[in-house]
Amino acid sequence: MTLKTSSRKINPFWNMIGFTLRKNIGIIIVLCIAALLYCPGSYIINYEDLLVSVQNNRNNYLLENFGNIVTVLSAIIAVLFNMLNFGFLYKKSSSDVFHSFPLTRSELLLSRLLSGIAATLIPTLICYTSFGILMAFNSWMATFTGLFWYLLHTIIITLVCSSFSMIFVICAGGEFDLCVSLIGGNLALIAVGWIFESILSETLVGFSGYRTSEIMYNLSPPYYCGVGLGLANDIAKYGINGQSIEFLIRSAVYIIVFTVASLLLYNRRKAEKGGTAYAYKFMYLGCSLLAGICGGYLVGMLFNSNVTSFAFWFFAVVGSVLTAVVYGTVTNRGFKGIWRSVIMGGISAVVLISVAISGVTGGFGYTNRIPESSKIKNVSVSAFDENITFYEPQKALDLHKAILDTNAIDFNYSVPYSQRQTIRFYYELQNGSTMQREFTVVESKVSDELLKIYKSEDRLKMINEHIDIVNAEQFNLYFYHNDEYYSVNISKSEADEFIKIYWQDVQNSDASVFEEKEYRFIELSGYRKRDTNRDDYFQFQFEWQSSFANTNQFIESHNLIERAKEQQQQNEAYEKY
Amino acid sequence: MIIAKALTKKFDEKIALDNITMTIADGCIFGLVGSNGSGKSTLLRLIAGVYMADDGEICIDGENCFNNPNIKSQIAFLGDTPYFLPQSNLKEMADLYNSMYPNFDYKIYNHLLTVFPLNQKARLSTFSKGMQRQAALILALATNPRYLLMDEAFDGLDVVMRRVLANIVMDGVEKRGMTAIIASHNLRELENVCDNVCVIHGGKIISNGSVESLRGNMHKLQVAFSEVPEMSVFNSLYVMKAERTGSLLSLVVKGNEDEIMQFVNSLSPLYAEIIEPTLEEVFVYELEVVGYDVKNILS
Q1: CATH code (residue B169)
Q2: Do residues B16 and B116 share a domain?
Q3: Which residue segment(s) compose the domain that B35 sits in?
Q4: Which has the closest alpha carbon to A377: A434, A425, A423, A424?
Q5: Residues of A with CB below 8 A from B72's CB?
């Protein structure tokens, strides 16, 4: 007996995309209306306010605000659409229907994912198009190039978030556990980075937290996307640069990797896991570990904020186990598997303790490691509230070695604040990697090396580069004298003279310069022309020691105090007028 | 033809199907019987390509069912709990099925709407359990499937609708060569519909064959005597079960019907009659013989 059918040629993959879009049409329309209300709606209504705010806030302020809001919302909506479109995974009856459709698992995943992305991008593009149309009539709003780059970043960040969230969507077994793992897991990951940084900063000598953000950038896609949004701001201001191109390429790779990972996980996902907490155990274990670490640290902190104390660690261990048990109880909807939760809590505590032990024991040579001179491309030293870059690293290396050799490190802040200083070394190595160390030191023990840095030509170069006096204009000196603050406009030649005179004082100074702790400063500010069509404000603070005779003389000889008073009167008169 | 080879499916530690090997011929109505949790729904989901086998394989025309759109386009799977998209009505669901299944036929759909009079524009969530099952049936049948898989097919339907459904299924098998696989824990519902029946218990096949062959030569014999003879008198018959109520003897006997009656008549009974046992009774007796706890199997 044969089957009588009139088989049509259909494409279930595209049909599923179309159907899902149609099914979500109500939400899409609401989002489009919201998008139009935001832009052009709110922009037209607040036109005058925006004009003022653009004048007060320079450099693509409007585009930054617009792009950041739209990107964040777009990413969130993409994730919500994924949660909505893949809700069928979490119920046996719906799972039966969807998985019996004539689609491969990959087709089913991609069709639902793409329809979610399309539904997200429709209102997003409406927003951008509206902004572009407004720009066409109001060129002061932003540049089209900036808008294009922002749009590209919005799309890329949305796709990264969407594809990344798919891993959680597939690994979860129910909506509740999806929310817990997706929101809680990602927040916990960032929190764990901060916790490790906090522990190491209190246990590891020389530890500098700069790597934490780098590690989080590599480990946490939401954090990564946040950084990407910052890059979009830079692109809108200064145009495309290497870091942004790297971000875009890397994001494209992430999208592919996350999507492929989702496909692999989905193809191996057991349909019968719908309704359980997690379809894959590793998601539960990972979240449990993160929960244990966060919980342990928080409970420890509640009882004793000193991470080197016994009380902190006792309660941290208790907290880790308790948190893991609570998480396990919530996940398993009861006390089934409580011993596994206890073990996970124990592992979390061990991880926390291991981090602390590695810190106390010098971080496997972390504290004493100094790069070889020949391998250094350049080194920046942060001292005296300045950041000085040395392309000849010897002076910086001398200081770094002196800090380690002379026991100058005051890790526990045992000397008074006035006698110590925090110094940070940031090495860029020839092989492209970086290394950073940060020490709080007793100044008197390394005063000779510090003085070399203080008087170095590299420091003068840094000052000159920062002020860029050739391209700068509208100089202003702001200083504190006899219990009063003064602000005075000076000419370019005066600014140039001031820097030269100040530098003479620096060269004449000796180690006692570090002992004077009555902090006074002279701030030189102004505007300089950049490549963009807008001016860029700058300011630099010069430490003003009482022993700086030439600087004192400069203020007197140029009647800066009198001029400041006159200018203030003129300003007041102008304001009244 | 559906062929399962050494098919095993586990849910964590629990073995739902244990090394099952079976064949389901095309163009028949195949009944899957077993108690709750016996593995019949799991077997249906494996055929439908919803579940992935842990071991062994299940194939249709030599092609594995899992992740195979070509095979799945020929299967309509009706789960034990009907599912419809949130806020949807029957028309929208029909559109979805139409866009998914190449053989979806609106003529069948419209015809079935006359058989099961449902408002296709009303929200399916407002339907009663029985109406939802009817809606799911309409959708499944409208896909014009080569294989119709129904889990607890008659659940929630009233007597009339059960008969209508049975007729529709039989009609599909007869006229279109469809193969229907119906899982149920109730044998009585299947015996008048199915050509073949497979009993599953604890993930294993206990019995599998045509209804007739399973019934075989088993007979229920009711005999009344003025003086009931000793049971040893019946030793020449293959008596599987015997019960006495006063002067009435109820025997389950295997053998040729004529020979049995000839022997019984030789004992000069007041009354003697042979009754065909129901399929359920056949299984009860067979399973009791092989030592299964029948009450648990056919609950």
Answers
A1: 3.40.50.300
A2: yes
A3: 2-208
A4: A434
A5: 100-103
CB contacts of B67 in chain A (<8 Å) are 104-105, 267
Chain B residues within an 8 Å CB radius of A12: 69, 73, 99-100
DSSP string, A278-342: BSSHHHHHHHHHHHHHHHHHHHHHHH---TTSHHHHHHHHHHHHHHHHHHHHHHHTSSTTHHHHH
Q: What element of type H or E holds B145? A: none
Query: Nearest CB to A101: which of B81, B85, B100?
Result: B100
Which of B183, B208, B233 is the last residue before a domain boundary?
B208
Q: Are residues B198 and B271 in the same domain?
A: no
> CA of A324, closest CA in chain B: separation in Å?
23
Which residues are bridge partners to B58 per DSSP? Answer: B4
Task: Look at B177 and A94 and tell me if their CB atoms are within 8 Å.
Answer: no
Task: Return d(Cα A557, Cα A494) in angstroms, integer.
Answer: 11
Count, residues in chain A: 577
Report the pLDDT averaged over residues A361-374: 88
Whether A474 and A526 have beta carbons less than 8 Å apart is answered as yes
Residues B246 and B118 in one domain: no
Q: Given this model, what pLDDT does residue A256 score?
A: 97
pTM: 0.81
Which residues of chain B neighbour A267 with C-beta distances below 8 Å? 67
Let me know whether B149 and B55 are in one domain.
Answer: yes
CB of B181 within 8 A of CB of B150? yes
Mapped onto helix, strand or coil, the DSSP state of residue B207 is strand
| Candidates B72, B123, B173, B181, partner chain A, best to mutate (most A CBs within 10 A) | B72
Residues B177 and B75 in one domain: yes
* Model confidence pLDDT, tens digit, residues B233-276: 888 888 888 888 888 888 888 888 888 888 988 888 888 998 87
| Closest C-alpha among B86, B131, B16 to residue A91 | B86
ipTM of the complex: 0.85
Q: How many CA atoms lie within 13 A of B54 on its CB side?
A: 16
Per-residue confidence (pLDDT) for residue B298, from 0 to 100? 46
**Shortest CB distance from A96 goes to which of B45, B72, B85?**
B45
Across the interface, of A93, A102, A270, the residue whose CB is closest to B100 is A102
Contact between A486 and A561 (Cβ < 8 Å): yes
Same domain, B169 and B254: no
Q: Does residue B227 share a domain with residue B158?
A: no
Contacts of B160 (CB under 8 A, 6+ apart): none
